[in-house]
Fold this protein.
Amino acid sequence: VQLQAFGGGLVQAGGSLRLSCAASGFIFRFNRMAWYRQAPGNQRELVAGITSGGTTNYVDSVKGRFTISRDNAKNTVNLQMNSLKPEDTAIYYCNRPPNDWGQGTLVTSPA
């Protein structure tokens, strides 16, 4: 299993970023996928998940701002992040539950 996340960067508060995760080594379309994040000094937390059927869930702090989506033809899962806040600053990880992780991509959104 390989999960390669990219798209992180530095964006001012209020801006947008789009993360993508390219998956390989398993039958992507049959699997639930998720994005987690970990800020300095904090535990890793679930940000958003999407089932094989496209049902999504979000942590309360990102509802209405972030959108998770998947492209089964390209084996990718995406996270569109709008209206970024300083508290969104973290390393974001792509995840295939339960224990397959990408390398992480840093998102920084200073005030």
